[in-house]
Amino acid sequence: QLQLVESGGGLVQPGGSLRLSCTASGLTLDDYHVGWFRQAPGKERDGEGVICIGKRGRNIDYGDSVKGRFTISRDHAKNSVTLEMNSLQPEDTGVYFCALDRGFQFFCSRMMSRYSDWGQGTQVIVSS
């Protein structure tokens, strides 16, 4: 049975960094596209993810707001995907969800409609 579990959220000051992990059980995460999505306080989950990584590292797609600040990578030994967030700003605040795209497109996409399996999220608060 598939399970996606996010971890690593917390409270950080503006300009700080956090590392989020998405760990899977029940399948090999490297065989699927993985995206990270944000839900800001009081708002619906963004229809476009902040970033995604293609299966077997085929591609990485960055949202405009995170280019140069966020990176994503796979840890095959841990069957996980890591989101490294740097230069965090208050507008980055929200619950971050990782999600799985089981489709057959060659590259990952940040469009929410592509994703079928979701973790429960981890809270990120950027505040002084």
Structural category is mainly beta
**Overall helicity:** under 10%
Oligomer: single chain
Low-confidence stretches: none
**Rg:** 13 Å
The overall pLDDT average reads 97
- The N- and C-terminal alpha carbons lie at a distance of 40 Å
Strand content: 35-45%
Q: Give the ordered list of helices and strands.
A: EEEEEEEEEEE
Number of β-strand runs: 11
Q: What does the overall shape look like?
A: globular
Q: How would a textbook summarize the main sheet?
A: 7 strands, mixed
Number of helices: 0
Written account of the structure:
With 128 residues, the protein is an all-beta fold. It has strands spanning 3-7, 10-12, 18-25, 33-39, 51-53, 60-62, 70-75, 80-85, 94-101, 117-118, 122-126. Strand 5 and strand 6 (60-62) form a beta hairpin. It is globular. Strands 2, 4, 5, 6, 9, 10 and 11 form a seven-stranded mixed sheet that branches. A four-stranded antiparallel sheet has the order 1-3-8-7, with no helix packed on it.
What are the key terms here?
128 residues; 7-stranded mixed sheet; mainly beta; 4-stranded antiparallel sheet; 44% strand; 0% helix
